[in-house]
Amino acid sequence: MEIQKEVLVQTLEKYKTKGFDYLKKILANDYSTYLELVYILYNVESKEQELITLKLNPNKPEIDSIIRLFPNADWHEREIFEMFGIKFNKRKLQKLLLYEWNGVDFPLRKSFEWNKDYKKIK
Amino acid sequence: MSIMRINIGPMHPSTHGLLRLIVDVDGDKIENIEPRIGFLHRGVEKLLENRMYMQSPPFLEKIDYVAPMGWDELFVASIEQATQTQVKEAAQYIRMILLEFQRIASHLLWIGTFLNDLGQMFTIFMWAFRERAEVLKLLEDISGSRMFYVNFRLGGLTRQIPEDFVERAFKLTDYLEAKVTQYKDIIDDSSIFIQRTKRIGVLPKDIAIAYGVSGPVLRASGIHEDVRKSKPYYAYDKINFKIPIRINGDSLDRYKVRYEEIFQSIYIIRKCLDYYNGLSNKDVIGLPIKLIGPPAKPDIVITQRELPRGEGLIYMIPAPQKPYRVALRSPAFSNLAALPKLATGSKFADLFSILGSLDIVMPEIDK
After folding, report:
1. What band does B93 get if pLDDT is binned at 50, 70 and 90?
2. Which of B37, B52, B130, B256 is deepest in the core (most CB within 10 A)?
3. Confidence of residue B86 (pLDDT cuts 50, 70, 90)
4. Least confident residue range of A97-101, B42-46, B232-236, B340-344
5. Alpha-carbon distance B197 to B195, whole Å?
6. B201: alpha, beta or left, given left = phi > 0 and alpha = psi -120 to 50?
């Protein structure tokens, strides 16, 4: 289901009350003209799976964090920030997950330049 | 008392890979724990985007070196789903047999290392490795490689199955059943083992769901969830196997779930061997590798599998020659993310009982 980014937290809250209380993964896709976030929710009782997608502007991608609803979103959000540069607001810890010294380039974006960083290493 | 900060790792025998833990302790009580990951990050998702479909399985195998076949099969299955390739019937049974043998090998290795973490030095470890070696020998004869198999092709496998495979596999299941049953005497009756695992690292049901843990860790908390049952693939729906469930959610239960899973895997293997034996057409060879991928349908593909460590998921956006995007959900990633919640408040000495019981493999977490 595709939604607007403003209603993300409300929508997920609604799904959570409906029994979709297991967050499998958050992932991002780069379609060059826009970025897409996909939230994979799961209902452990009824074994149903639901995909919630939303589009973001690639120049200044920002979205509200959902840690309040799903605590395991923490690592997924940090990974996505590191790989795609999508900033998650309303969360305390803004640290990178994998490389503490990264944060300039976003490797999983399609515009990422290969081998650029090798030249910096001396 | 004042808080003391202890650094563990990144290289430490009990972290099973490169994992750094920053632990704040008050006396011997853990006040806070912060896992630092990323030491083995190789950007597998990016690598997959830049390779033709069938060039990628070797990369996928390296992200879980304990059970490489699981990820290999998961990736090949997602390509099959994208290209709508039918898997030959005999190959379906053989794949199930191989995957269950791989699960047994993975659980055996885990039992050995877990007992080592708890100070039961090397007895069970050597026993488990003895049994695991027998499993690997069989897998080697099928695939040609002892550890990294690269054994799957679209629609089947790389090689024909040897004539004596069924007989040998039956013998191996008997051997495993007899040997693994012996573990019970030395592990379950060991008061040291019980003291170090019972009511240690308790993960209640609601927290397990909130933290998105999966596999044996989730099932030890009393949740009936297994992809083989909830979204059956191949012939898993034909086989009436049980999913071991425990309700206390402590380290002991996580051990028991894995231990019982070994016997369920043996049961599945025997059933599959029977089915395979009854087939008239035993051809399992898949399509030849073409580096230029077959035309993929543009829809998004989501493939799920029950890996030894939990639920693995591949989200793929196919494109004609290379995938446009592959995202991996690794079970160990979510399981490790729950460690701060699990370990905070417990004693420092119990940390490795808790960490060990999660059965993490670091390359899978860092990707």
Report:
1. very high
2. B37
3. confident
4. A97-101
5. 6
6. left
Distance between CA atoms of residues B84 and B64, nearest Å: 26
What is the CATH number for A75? 3.30.460.80
| Annotated domain spans of chain B | 4-366
Out of B44-48, B167-171, B195-199, B291-295, pick the least confident.
Answer: B291-295
Q: Which residues contact B98 (CB under 8 A, 6 or more apart)?
A: B69, B73, B139, B142, B151
Residues B313, A25: C-beta atoms closer than 8 Å: yes
Q: Residue A66 pLDDT > 80, yes or no?
A: yes
Query: pLDDT per residue over B130-141, tens digit each?
Result: 999 999 999 998
- pLDDT of res. A121: 57
Q: Do A23 and B212 touch (CB under 8 A)?
A: yes
Interatomic CA distance for residues B26 and A79, integer angstroms: 30
Pairing mode, strands A87-89 and A62-64? parallel
Structural domain that includes position A112:
2-116
| Predicted TM-score of the model (pTM) | 0.91
Query: Nearest residue of B to residue A113 by CA position?
Result: B46
Question: Is B190 a residue whose pLDDT tops 60?
Answer: yes
> B337 and A38: CB-CB below 8 Å?
no
Chain B residues in contact with A84 (beta carbon < 8 A): none
Contact A97 B38 (CB under 8 A): yes
Distance from CA of B166 to the nearest CA of A (A): 35
pLDDT above 90 coverage of chain B, percent:
38
CB atoms under 10 Å from CB of B198, counted, come to 13
CA dihedral B236, B160, B62, B312 (to 10 degrees): -10
Decide if A24 and B329 are in contact by the 8 Å CB cutoff.
yes
Which residue numbers of A have CB closer than 8 Å to B's CBs? 21-25, 27, 29-30, 38, 40, 44, 47, 49, 51, 70-72, 74-75, 83, 97-100, 107-108, 112
B206-228 average pLDDT score = 91
Mean pLDDT of chain B: 88
3-state DSSP percent of chain B in helix, strand and coil, to 5: 50, 15, 35
Looking at 1.20.58.100, 1.10.645.10, 3.40.50.620, 2.60.40.420, the CATH number of the domain B4-366 comes to: 1.10.645.10
Q: List residues bridging with B157 in a β-sheet.
A: B152, B285
Q: In which band, very low, low, confident or very high, does the pLDDT at B295 lie, cut at 50, 70 and 90?
A: low
Number of residues assigned to chain A: 122
Residue A121 lies in a domain: no
Contacts of B210 in chain A (CB under 8 A): 21, 70-72
